[in-house]
Each structure stands twice: as structure tokens, then as C-alpha cells.
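Fold this complex.
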Amino acid sequence: MAVTRDDVARLAGVSSATVSYVINDGPRPVSEETRAKVLRAIEQLGYQPNVMAQSLRRQRTNTVGLVFTTIERHLTHPYFVDLLTSIGEECARHGLNMLLSPCADRALEQSIYERMVGGRQVAGIIVTGVRHDDARIAYLSAEAFPFVVLGRPEHDDGDFPYIDVDGARGTDEAVQHLVDLGWQRIACIGLSAELVCADDRLAGYRRALERNGLAYDSRLVANVHTTEAAGHQAMARFLALDEPPDAVLACSDELALGAMNAAQEQGLVVGQDIGVIGFDDIPSAAYCRPPLTTIRQPMYEIGTRLCRMLIQIIEGEEPEERQVILPPTLVVRESCGTHRHLP
Amino acid sequence: MAVTRDDVARLAGVSSATVSYVINDGPRPVSEETRAKVLRAIEQLGYQPNVMAQSLRRQRTNTVGLVFTTIERHLTHPYFVDLLTSIGEECARHGLNMLLSPCADRALEQSIYERMVGGRQVAGIIVTGVRHDDARIAYLSAEAFPFVVLGRPEHDDGDFPYIDVDGARGTDEAVQHLVDLGWQRIACIGLSAELVCADDRLAGYRRALERNGLAYDSRLVANVHTTEAAGHQAMARFLALDEPPDAVLACSDELALGAMNAAQEQGLVVGQDIGVIGFDDIPSAAYCRPPLTTIRQPMYEIGTRLCRMLIQIIEGEEPEERQVILPPTLVVRESCGTHRHLP
DNA sequence: CTGAAAGCGCTTACAG
DNA sequence: CTGAAAGCGCTTACAG
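Structure:
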């Protein structure tokens, strides 16, 4: 059986309370001599405090929760990996653990959150991928449970701490970049329609189209789950139109990769016959051929700041920043052509 | 404050023991009438059992632990993501959670494991990336704590449950594939020397070289951390040799991607002037140009089986399989040339 | 079929 | 400076 605090107390010849005070280094003074005895006993027995017992007694846990859906293979999205890494590192800096709960079925999602929150398994939660009328956010708000969100609410969808990227600005810049290079008929492969950020990105697309006097054509717009396969499929459909697009804005790099592939399969030279621009700047974007021009989201930084925000909320402090919108940045590579395109 | 079992008992007008029996559905019979009363009270109060208290009392937790090092940005390796996803899904099927602890500094690694194990935070641990004289494995074995390993021990490094890919077979096949296509002077960018699998893969490389009557040249071998940058650097160094290689086996796809880039920067056409073969079959392998020929590791399957194995060990059962070595498979794409290369 | 009680391993007022 | 004791929210033998 595992060694407990009482074993330490017995070996050191002190009360178990004293052991606790030594371990927690306060709040009451312990004589150097006693401390040394206890420390020696701990060392000798290889004692580790039982984390469950500590949490139960302290009425707070040392863990931050994150639910990832395996439905859309969320975790496999390269940008999500950056997020996870930075959150993990920030957690580590604060001595926190991460509890990762997979959700394989949307119907079970609510119960996973309820278990985490009601079961007091975690001290706070990070939510990603805000949806319209997001039940998770409604629940966490109602419970007044500490949480932060990657992504913004819609206007009347409540007020909560978040960090988001200005998606509309990103897609606007993307379209402008395409237009500046001479592309005229620009399609858009958008994200899953349930996501709030899908609307946001579509809005930027339309805004830039309008500003440039280009017509919006709903046949050139798709909403899909972000996978390479879906990007491929959407692009193939666009290319089969009577008036196919000469460029495409994909709302994720994975979609863009699939779209490039579809174009290449039809014998088109990307960056010459057709312009392709992505969103995210995942590692593959730099390594595909041609290298993908894309809108970069600073996921690593977002994860760090999000986690810091959550920690402050958990501690009951007013977070230094509560609602942040970060600008994405255009990363020009070769998939839209490197100089003016002449039709 | 959170609602507790006593609140439920009070509302239902039963003892708190009865509430427990209803929640745990046994082991003692509860009358239908009482059960209904309790269930109604639970529903009404939105009661969730406190997971900490349950774990403490039951003397076991419902969580599986995984330490990932942020040093080598382990988590960002695409193959690791597959592993995490499949482990997560398998955990979910068994009602388990995953505790992910980042390790930012090798010096802290031991203490992270000690906290997980000694602190009884997790019921079992999954170890990845076996190193020579691996302290983690020695520790877990000594503690007789449930764990499984991705990767094999060396001969006298102890006996533990694992799943591994036959790396030597993979690299052997890779080299043979290169030789069959006419490549003659084959370099190898190996993994970090501390990893047991680095040796394994190097062994397959040497074996195939020998079998084909090709000389082993230590100048054509490097051991590096697996990043694109490192692959780039190693390749650049190879190409600067008096007798540069005409092909390279990279022991991970990330290394291969970097190596391809370095070759392309020097104006070489991959698949024509130089052959490149990778290891892993990450998503980018299919999407880079030229598409990367590689040795595929079935990481998703490995994660599932590894997790299943761990669960059986946690339950105290004899695992159905205890030590598994899976064959990798050659995935031929274009980076080694698609037909015989004529020097 | 049900309740009263011990105890999991801690922390922390309370008393000395 | 230190110890005895209450209690966090559960589970589960024990007794009825």
C-alpha cells in the first residue's frame, strides 16, 4: 500500500498535523529541528501526499479541464496541437495538470461537462470552438464555474472571458490579397456552419468582395467540416461548375491542402492557373508544394494567454485581460502566385 | 456550494447510504419506490458525485496518465497526436479520463511521475519514447504500478508490457526500396541517440546495406531530435560532403520533410536527383511535393491496443496481449522516384 | 430492504 | 512551537 502522512508522522515522531505543516510550508512556524526530522522521514519513505485527499480537504483541485471532440477529430487539427502544447506548458508553470476528456458523441457532451464541474474534478475549463447558442457556455455560466473560451460569442450570447482571432479581418485580407494579384472569381470553402467563427470568416469574405465590386455567388460558397477530404470534395465541386472560380479562399489550411490537391488532379497549376489561400498557418502550409499562402493564427500565444486568464479567474482575481481579439497575419508564400496574375 | 450526497438524502428522505447504493446500482437491493425517490431528488438537485471523494474512498481513480515532454515538442509530432486521439477514444469507451502532464525539463520528469504514482492521481500510466536505461520504467516497475509502454526495452532492460513497431524491419525495407530503384549511396538521418528505437532503426539500415553489398559510412549517419529544422540541417551537411549521398532515409517524416527542403534549396529534384524516404506516414507526407514515400506506423491502432492493455492491467487481469511487435508498412509515393533510377 | 458508523488521507481551526 | 480533533464527501461492512 502507498505510504501515508501518518507513516511519516510515526517515523519522525511528530503529530501528523506537523507533517502537513512541513509539506505545505506553513502557515504556522515549525522548528528547524522538527522540520528536518520530518523531511528526513519523507525522504526515507518516499512519501507523496495523496492528491485526492488533498483536493477533497482543500475543496479545490489542481486540474484544468479540456474536452476535445473525437467526432471531427478535433485533436488532430494541427492548430489544436499548438493550443494544447501551450496550455500544457502554462499549466506546468503553475503546477496545474490538464484533464483531457474525449467526447465521441455530441449527445454525451453535456454529461461530460457536468461530471467535470459537478464532480469537482477540475478547477476550471477551457472551451474551444464556440457554436451558436452554445450549450456548454450556457451551462458553465449558469453554474458560475470558472471557464475561458477560445472564440467569441455572438452579440446576445452572453458575456464571458475569451480570446479570439479576428476572423473577418483575416478573410478580408485574404480576399484582398487575391484581388490584388488579379484573381477575379473567388470561391470560399467555409467551416462547419454551427461554428460562430464560420460566420465571422464568411462576413470578411463578403465584405472584401463587395468593397472590390465583386458579386457574391452562393454557388461558390460551401460550409464543411475541416478535413483535407472535405476541402478536396468542395473544390472538385467548384471546378465542375459552368463558371468555375479562378481562386479559392479556404477557411482552414487543411481545407486548402485538400483543395490544392483537387486542383492539381485536374491538371491546374496552383499559383498560376488558380490561386489558393488558407487559414491557420499549420506546419504543412510551409512544406506543401507550392507553399501555401495563408492567414496565420497565433495559436501558441492564444493558448498561453487563455490559460493565464483561466488561472486568474480560478484564483478569484480579476483577469488582466478578459476579452481579447487578436489580429491574424497574412503569410505570403506561393499558392496565389508571387506576382500579378494576368488573365 | 456544490450539492452533496447528504442533500440528496435529505430531500429524498432516506439515509445517505441508500443514495450511494442507488448511484452505484448495487451491491445491495434497493426497493423500486426508494430508488425512484432518490433518482428524483438527484435529478431535481442536479447532483453529481464528488469524484475526489469517490476516488479517495474507493482507493482507486478513474484516470490514466500520460506525460508529454514539451522539450522536444513531443506533442506536436503528428504521430503523437494520433496516439493521443486513439488513447482518448479508448479511455472514453471505458469511462476513463486522461491526465496529461507536460514536462518542460528533463530534471523534473521523475518528480512528475512520482506525483502521479505516489499521489495516486492515476490508475495507470502510458510511457512513450523508451530511452536507454529508462528511469521512468525502472521506477514504475519498482513501484509495481500499472503501466504500458510504447516501445521495446533493450535485452536486459527488464520485462514489461509494451507495443512496438518493428523499426529495423521498417528501415530495412526502406533501404531495400531505395536500392531496388537504383540508389547507391544512402544516408540515414536517425533519431535522438538516447532512444532505444533509434538503434533499432539504424540496425535495419545497416542490415539492408550489408545485404546489398553497400558500405556503411559513418559520415552519412546523423542522430538528431526529430524536427524539420534538424532534418534540413542534417541534409545540408550531407550534401556538402565530397561524396554526397544520392538518397536519404529519414527516420521520421518530419526529418524527411526538412531533408527534402534542403535538397530542393540546392536545386535538386527530389525523386530524380535524389531519393528521400521517411518514417511514420504523417498527414503531410501525402500532401508535400513530391508526395513522400515512407514507412507507415499504425499509431492509431497502437494507441487503442496499448490503452486496452493498460486497462486490463489496472483491473488486475492478465492482459490478452502483453508484448506486441507490429510490422510497419511501406507506402510508396513519389519521393524516391516511381520507376528505376538510372545513374 | 434500510440506517448508523467507520474510515479513505488529508488540512486547519482550536487549545495548549 | 506542537498535538488532538473535526470534517471534506464519499463507500461499505455491520447490525437490524
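Chain A has 13 helices and twelve strands.
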